[in-house]
Amino acid sequence: MKKRLPLGNQEFSEVIGNNCVYVDKTETIYKLVTEGQYYFLSRPRRFGKSLLANTIKELYLGSKELFKGLWIYDKWNWKKKYPVIKMSFSSINHDVLGLKEALNNQLNTLASFYNILLKQKANALKFQELIIKLSENGQVVIIIDEYDKPIIDYIDNLSKAEENRKILKNFYSVLKDLDKHIKFFFITGVSKFSKVSIFSDLNNLEDITIDDNFSQIVGWTKEEIEKYFPEYIQDIAKKYENVFPDIMFEIQKWYNGYSWDGITKVYNPWSLMRLFKSQEFSNYWFKTGTPTFLMELIKKRGFTIFDLENRNIKKIMLDAYEIKNMTLPPLLFQTGYLTIQKKILGSGKITLGFPNVEVEESFSIYLLSKLTIDQTDRTSSILIDIEESFTDNREDDFIKSVNILYKGISYNIVDNKEKYYHSLFYMIMKLIGFEIDVEIETINGRIDAVVKTDNHIYIIEFKINQSAEKAIEQIKNKKYALKYSNDKRHIYILGINFDTDKKEIEDWKLEKY
Question: Which terminus of the chain has fewer CB atoms gathered within 10 Å of its CB, N or C?
């Protein structure tokens, strides 16, 4: 009988107690707790941070029976137990009570659990008092989960986010003088806000977010899902046996691809479990938090998909995260919409890109909608019309449908007009499932775009406020088609001219090569 899926279970004790699948991460946890003392880990939402934090909690509480059969079982000193201060900012009701009152309630609850009477009134001093009094019976383990949620929740309300940041800065400031009372300190979050004192005051806090040694501490590798979920994989393979010849390839395409070292790829646990339960390929993780704020930020700053996809940035930028001056690529990385494709050794650079189909497709549809007609459902419907008309060679209908989207572009967000229209066309073609390459270098120049189907290759040149005829002439004069002359597919050349005043493809011309 296969074990249950741990959907919604963040408590390690419940996962084990309810006979749910637990992907054994205790070997990596052992490395974590035996080789250091103060750690920070950033991962996107719904990625297993809370389960990890609760597993560490049970380890230090000495809950030996919960770990039976796991790697760490015969390697840990279960006789030595520690008091644990575990706080999760995802469940303190800060949005209802206010952050100060929510912190006060948490401290009182923890003190009551350990039969401690706190005399201090201010939250920071209460926190300090709790740690010192608990350490009378041995050093304290402190685990803070989702520390930044009171900031992230108000990221579109900067005054409130800044207010909560200051409260947290004051709260954490007492930790810097308590080293001798602390056995182990572990804090998780989505983002690393540089002006929250925990990162400036604790000089020995080690950020393991992109540490190669902990690249798979959360998320599941291909080997792990094949080991722990074989029955679920078999069920899906049976359902799709006449659709997908290689079910693992399809699962990987949809949900694998997250990386924090540029080498190790892990699956999104939430999406994978939803897939195993429903046996339907869908955008499960994306739907748990539609990035409205991010879309508005992209639109406001005039970013295009070319600014986001396969973007090289300095690794140090991942540490420069401030509420009032947010840099988009690091923000998209920390929130999970981009991931590390590779680390460029010796350069201090990393390449960011979309991790998988789920994220790229969903993000692109929302972004295309936000930049054009701002109606996601209608955008999806128009994309279907575009796909069908392109596949059926109904060029007039294809252009008409594309122009519906272009008509919705706001005048004040198009700075580099050619790049902007070009990027939207690129998004459209990718979203309808066609292979499209852009800015392809040739010996005579650079091709704007090439779309490939099973039977055809389309060489495309874009013009702004000129004519499609000029675009066709350029393709011919530069001999762009020579690059594909050995390909057996039929080659077409397509010239497209955008009229920026009308916000549409005004003129287009298609010829067979």
Answer: N
